[in-house]
Amino acid sequence: MAGFCIDQRRRFEGKVWAVVQPHSVEAVQKTVRYCYEQQIPLTPQGGNTSMCGGATPSDSVAGLGIIVSLSKLNRVREVNLADNCITVEAGRVLQQVQQDAAAVGRMFPLSLASEGSCQIGGNIACNAGGVNVVRYGPMRDLVMGLEVVLPNGDLLSHLSPLHKNTTGFDVKHALIGSEGTLGIITAATLKLFAPARTHVTAWVGVDSIDHAVALLELTQQHFAERLSSFELISDFALELSSQHTQLSQPLSAPWHVLLELTDSTDNTLLPEQLGECLLGAGFENAVLAESEQQREQLWSLRENISDAQRHLGASIKHDIAMPIRSVASFVHACAPVLQAAYPNAKIVVFGHLGDGSLHYNVFMPDVLSNDVYQYEAGMNALVYEQVFAVGGTVAAEHGIGQLKTKWMDKMRSGTELALMLAIKKQLDPNCLFNQGKVLPD
Ligand code: MLT
Ligand code: ZN
Fold first, then answer.
1. Where is the signal peptide (predicted)?
2. What is the arrangement of strands in the sheet containing 42-45, beginning at the earlier edge strand?
3. Is the pTM of this model over 0.95?
4. Of 14, 221, 344, 389, which is most buried by a Cβ count within 10 Å?
5. Is residue 320 part of a domain?
6. Which listed ligand is nearest to 300 at the C-alpha?
7. pLDDT tens-digit profile of 198-221?
8. Distance 438 CA to ligand 1 centre (A)
9. Cα–Cα distance measured from residue 328 to residue 320, given in angstroms and rounded to the nearest whole number
């Protein structure tokens, strides 16, 4: 059971007395009912790719529990082209769902680094983001209906393809982002979109983050919804990724933007229009991918940043978001404060500037592996103080899990927290579902 009990970053490890892998919704219900009657704590688990220990049992769980792994509940239930949606079971891997959509001439836009192993149920449970949020929104915007086994074993089934429905509360939104604390998602109806027939991918060197934000405004104004990705990368992050991937750096600049325009028609004018737009506004330090291979290489430089860093030591990750207009002032204020307190700290800044989220990862080259976590509380306090100062959040797209529960009361008002706890108590009175996650003690 070892692989189920420890998270992929090897930070969180708990003990359980069983891992259950149900093949059917009825089996999930039977398992959950048994746990409810016997008061057995239960951890729902998808691909176990959480960055915050959301899917591994917490070692503070009162009494040994079980893990319910959704991996075997992974079928496509229905493809509905008239309503442009697909219904899949929770254990289906995200990349498979992308392929299912492509097989019927559609596109499912959620895309993130772990898409080859993360599962759709986990993506919904933590309201995952990724590189296409600027155009398609996070997971919350892609879910039409949910099927969920509640903590008492009852089935909440609303896999509706309805595009409109104004009948009271939309309960699914309480489940999306609840990270398995309110129920086990067993299936979902997801929105499909037209596939992109034209991709224009540009790497643009900019002098500052303000310059990058100006580029974002410019491309949004010129290309509106065709702007599907807008990623910010510091020069240091690029240097690490370039060494790791053995791919050369496309250009030199203090900051870099990887942006992509997509069009669902064959739009041969789009590359030229982007080129003219960039040159016209003085963004001359830029390259456009001229082949699919070049496009893949540019994306590979972006997608390998985390991996490149992992090889240099464990990092203290900050998955933060803030108003886009405040990103530059946050970065300017935070680096000196952090560097003064931790002179050896290396800061790797990159992220999804198009939706205001940043990965502000810190590592210490001379501190071995997990020893770096002794500095985590101190660093978090410094970084998050700056995040709160600009009205940001400490969990943009990776969730709270067991890593960030103590920050919840800084993020949410007392009224909101009381409401969350009331819902939790109503659905899971014995607090058996995903103990130690999301909600403060
Ligand atoms: C990414 O966008 O590459 C990941 O969400 C970032 C990370 O691993 O910190
Ligand atoms: Zn990310």
1. none
2. 16-20, 65-69, 42-45
3. yes
4. 14
5. yes
6. 1
7. 999 999 999 999 999 999 999 999
8. 20
9. 13
